[in-house]
């Protein structure tokens, strides 16, 4: 990372949800603040601001990452995906979002965007993920409302749907 001058803002280029973005950021600006306050992508929630709760989870180059622990400077040239990217049409839920709806995988919804982004990354990498792996993958997320059972059921359902879509009709 280059040496930065604290007296000025710095230019960063990156892709967010498939769109090229150019932004001027301060040295200590967090990715969560850049996404929410500068770009207007408010689906990324900020909870604990210490990387513990997982509400701010986004994908950086396909991997889940805490936006509250990532400096905006660190994302130069990266591909960022936020929860807004899950559904290609704002009027139609993604299969994972639809499974959350069917299984009541959310209540207050505050933690949901981060959980969705973590599960999306897991199911892209491991579409055959089972209950134990999903549970372990969710260990970095705090949800005060659901008790996680419905979230796990939704993830298993979405994984099953994904496998059906990937299997050619016989």
TrEMBL record:
<keyword id="KW-0408">Iron</keyword>
<dbReference type="Pfam" id="PF01799">
    <property type="entry name" value="Fer2_2"/>
</dbReference>
<protein>
    <submittedName>
        <fullName>(2Fe-2S)-binding protein</fullName>
    </submittedName>
</protein>
<dbReference type="Pfam" id="PF00111">
    <property type="entry name" value="Fer2"/>
</dbReference>
<keyword id="KW-0560">Oxidoreductase</keyword>
<dbReference type="InterPro" id="IPR002888">
    <property type="entry name" value="2Fe-2S-bd"/>
</dbReference>
<dbReference type="InterPro" id="IPR001041">
    <property type="entry name" value="2Fe-2S_ferredoxin-type"/>
</dbReference>
<dbReference type="InterPro" id="IPR036010">
    <property type="entry name" value="2Fe-2S_ferredoxin-like_sf"/>
</dbReference>
<dbReference type="InterPro" id="IPR012675">
    <property type="entry name" value="Beta-grasp_dom_sf"/>
</dbReference>
<keyword id="KW-0001">2Fe-2S</keyword>
<keyword id="KW-0411">Iron-sulfur</keyword>
<feature type="domain" description="2Fe-2S ferredoxin-type">
    <location>
        <begin position="10"/>
        <end position="86"/>
    </location>
</feature>
<dbReference type="InterPro" id="IPR036884">
    <property type="entry name" value="2Fe-2S-bd_dom_sf"/>
</dbReference>
<dbReference type="InterPro" id="IPR051452">
    <property type="entry name" value="Diverse_Oxidoreductases"/>
</dbReference>
<keyword id="KW-0479">Metal-binding</keyword>
<dbReference type="InterPro" id="IPR006058">
    <property type="entry name" value="2Fe2S_fd_BS"/>
</dbReference>
């Amino acid at each position: 990372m280059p040496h930065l001058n604290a007296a000025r803002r710095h230019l960063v280029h990156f892709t967010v949800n498939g769109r090229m973005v150019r932004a001027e950021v301060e040295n200590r600006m967090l990715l969560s603040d850049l996404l929410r306050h500068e770009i207007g992508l408010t689906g990324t929630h900020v909870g604990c601001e210490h990387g513990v709760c997982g509400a701010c989870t986004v994908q950086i180059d396909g991997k889940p990452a805490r936006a509250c622990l990532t400096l905006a400077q660190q994302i130069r040239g990266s591909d960022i995906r936020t929860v807004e990217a899950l559904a290609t049409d704002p009027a139609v839920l993604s299969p994972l979002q639809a499974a959350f709806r069917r299984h009541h995988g959310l209540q207050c919804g505050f933690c949901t965007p981060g959980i969705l982004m973590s599960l999306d990354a897991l199911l892209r990498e491991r579409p055959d993920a089972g209950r134990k792996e999903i549970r372990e993958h969710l260990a970095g997320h705090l949800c005060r409302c659901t008790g996680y059972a419905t979230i796990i059921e939704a993830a298993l359902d979405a994984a099953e749907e994904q496998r059906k879509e990937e299997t050619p009709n016989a």
